[in-house]
What we know:
This protein is α+β, with helices and mostly antiparallel strands. It is built from 11 helices and 21 strands. A hairpin with a 4-residue loop joins strand 20 and strand 21 (606-611). Helix 8 packs parallel to helix 9 (545-557).
Amino acid sequence: MTAELVRGQNHPLPGTRLEIRISAGQPIVAGATLGDEQGRVRGVEWVAHPGSPTLPGLEVSKQAAADHRLAVDPDAVPDTVHRVSVLLSLPIGVGGPVSFRALAAPFVAVTGLDGAEVASYTITDLDAESAVVALELYRRQGAWKVRAVGQGYAGGLAEMLTDQGLPGARELAGTINEAVAQGLARSVAAPPPRPADDARVRTASQGQATPQSGQGQPAPAAPHPQGGDAPTGGPVNYTHPSRQTTAPPPSPPTAPPARPGQAAQPVAGDATGWSMEERLYNQVWGMFEDLARTTAAYRSAVDFADSRMEQELDKVLADPRSRVGGAGDTARDAARAKHGDLVGQARATLDRDLAQLAAEAEVVEPALPAAYAAWSSPVWQAYRAPMEIPMALRLGDLHLPERIDLRIPMLVRLPLERGLWIDSGKALTNSFTDSAELRRLAMDTAVMHAARLLAAYPAGEFTVHVIDAAGSAAGPLAPLVASGVLAEPPASGAAGVSAVLGKLTQRVDLVQMAIRGGAPDALPPDLDTAEQLLIVNDFPHGFDDRAVTQLRYLADEGPAVGVHLMMVADREDAAEYGPLLDPLWRALLRLTPVPDDHLADPWVGHAWTYEPPTVPLGSEVLRQVLDRVAAARRNGGR
Length: 638
């Protein structure tokens, strides 16, 4: 049974490896310090923080996040350590809250390897503090206990570390804040936050996701229940709590009651939202977040098991008496057996969570609307031009190596906030050694993305232009050309490149001037007000310096006024421009025409494998959809 602590209360701990789970509602920094018998921190080497996350028996998060998992192995902590203090602080200089009064009360739980909670503590009554000692684990007469502390510091991390007797506390606090700020700057933004009463109730074994600010990233987000009972392990709970709002959105579908001893079954639309489309969008992101977190927990457990076994084997080797002979063999066998048990427990928890997510994916995938659906979905057979722009668009799938058949749709919000770069570089050729074949696949991928964008927008509200300077993409472009959905034939040669870039650059200038002048109705009557997409194949062929400058301008300024860029290019082909083009590549979201594990998730440290979209072999779905898009344009949207 979980002990719900109040400030100052303590509780005994088991002598096994533990996890400390933290949920704060917004990104915070989590760290820990090691203290001697008097509670003093002897030096910076006794502080675990994002810039130095691992100490003997202790590992903390590498980045600020709304949820954290800290791993503690009491048996591996040095004998000179008598106290482990868990510290929380707010990131400095990143535009977030400056005190804990702006956050929900942070929730901290100490759990075992199986996810079962040993003790929990909700840190209440915080006000102007920007740093707090949440818990302390302390050694007493050979056993470990946890105490709820909740001591806040208005002076932030520096004051807190100084109070623990750390020499050079302010310098270390500055180093930590700088490392966190740099890490957040490298991170892609999180998806739009879901409502605070999100209906998806996750288990402690997977971690509770919390809303993040920003949008568009594969990042964790879903609230942890604050001030109430935290989940205590077990399967994913697909049931829904009662809504308390006075004007609730339509209720999502709920799972049928489970039979005794059985988990509730997943249902499509199992998330909050004002429409089924929004509920499915939130559900897909929830699945992504759950897969990220349960995999992170498993990898962390394996890392700690490896570290613990190495330490135990080192102890055997350090003692000449046990290095050889029966005693040494027994100690080595015991270390390996303990390692196997820890990894086995972690794998069992991971397999349970993966099985539940796979079951959810099986019911969600068939329910996805066209903009979210794979090309193999039957929904495309009944496609009709929409009346409204959808929330998001599917660009492919994502998976992790722990279970490659569990694919999560990669959804990005519309309208696009960044251009796309389909990388045709030779570095991707694992099984494709033919560079020409890779370029063809890259262009096929670009055409599929363009077709999906055309199908997602109402008739006449999305225009596609193509630059194919060398005319090398005639085959892949055939579906777009034959259906008549392009604004004009693909531009070729230097003159064609210049004409298209000049027209789109002028459009960006005119719209920007109209917006800045507060006169959006003053645009020329012949200006195409639809969203614009420019596909550029085989860059930089056919581009002079002026054209390159215009392309960079479109990548930087275009998305804000409805002009989007899709590059199909090998970066090495443009190496002669050197660092001049670095801002261009950084401005674009890199995708690949073959599976590639290049999408980094800095929040949990994963490298996700991206799977590009594919059309089933022999299927005519792409041509049929483009024909219907063209027909809807001719018939005024019908």
